[in-house]
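Now for my pick.
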Amino acid sequence: MGRIIVIANQKGGVGKTTTAVNLAACMAAAGRASLLVDLDPQGNATSGLGIDRNSLDLTVYHSLVDGVPLREVMKPTLMDNLKMIPSNKELVGAEVELVSAPHREFRLKSQLEAFRDEFEFIFIDCPPSLGLLTLNGLVAADGVMITLQCEYYALEGLSELLHTIVLVRDNLNPQLRLQGVLLTMYQYTNLSRQVVDDVRAHLGQKVYDTVIPRNVTLSEAPSFGKPVIFYDLKSAGARAYLALAREVLSRG
């Protein structure tokens, strides 16, 4: 059975999409059939895999709102082992249109379950909020990976997200668990080191050993529509995400 991992944080700019794209690509490169679901109306995960988000006839919006099968929305990528469920700005309307819809929290889950036998890993990239789109991701997932930027305010808002995970587990998805916390945008400064120490002191083994550095290559790769391992395999960013993929596999 495939594992569904949602990548979430209500703060923006903390490496969610970068992690979703590059972790999915690293898993695919390791021979693990993977699917990336873009649940963010910005569609950055979509363009980060080389798909023109402005020329799409069908996106995840049509699956959530109109019930179009995800199979019809799915797109190939430059990797045989990696498929994509794309998104674009149309998804903004889903939050409003689903408010009165029956089983609105289960729209994504009901469609993704059919792919568990086809993909070993299904990654869901969420928007920077705790709204209905993120809730759909949490209800569909087995585990939550939280990306946490190595900055002074890193722990602010984390308790709210952890509380949301508990609420979803208690009321909507009993299987949901905290997959792990990934520290991102690390710089070799005293501040970054202090943040890492503080987070590890608070969360212990839930924090991944792998730390993602602030790396210009990670910022450049999306503009070429490529995961970093295809843009510059020798970069610090590529090495970090390959290490993360190995760690995720080893943790089970």
User: Anything to note?
Assistant: Residues 3-251 form a domain with the Rossmann fold fold (CATH 3.40.50.300).
